[in-house]
Amino acid sequence: MTFFKNMLRDEAGATAIEYGLIAALIAVAAIAALNSLGGNLNNTFNSVSDELEEANA
After folding, report:
1. CB count, 10 Å around CB of 51?
2. Distance between CA 38 and CA 44 in Å, rounded?
3. CA quadruple 45, 46, 47, 50: dihedral positive or negative?
4. d(CA 46, CA 42)
5. What does the chain look like in DSSP terms, one character per residue?
6. pLDDT tens-digit readout, 10-46
7. Among positive and negative, which fits the CA dihedral 18, 22, 23, 27?
């Protein structure tokens, strides 16, 4: 019985889980930001490409 009480009091595993959750949250935020930025960059490069094509015509 004391084994289970000691396991409930031990918080070392909880700290590792919290760090894992923080890392996952940062990864999700980075992916969302890069997806948004990627779309904007694609539009910018397409616009520049169109302008260059018009200038060469």
Report:
1. 10
2. 10
3. positive
4. 6
5. -HHHHHHHH--HHHHHHHHHHHHHHHHHHHHHHHHHHHHHHHHHHHHHHHHHHHHH-
6. 666 667 788 889 999 999 999 999 888 888 888 899 9
7. positive
Sole residue written with tokens 């760090």: 19
CA atoms of 38 and 35, how far apart (whole Å): 5
Tokens at residue 2, please?
């004391």
Hey, what amino acid is at 16?
A
User: Tokens 């969302």, residue?
Assistant: 32
CA distance 14 to 50: 54
pTM value? 0.53
Using the structure block, give the residue that is written with the tokens 């031990």: 10
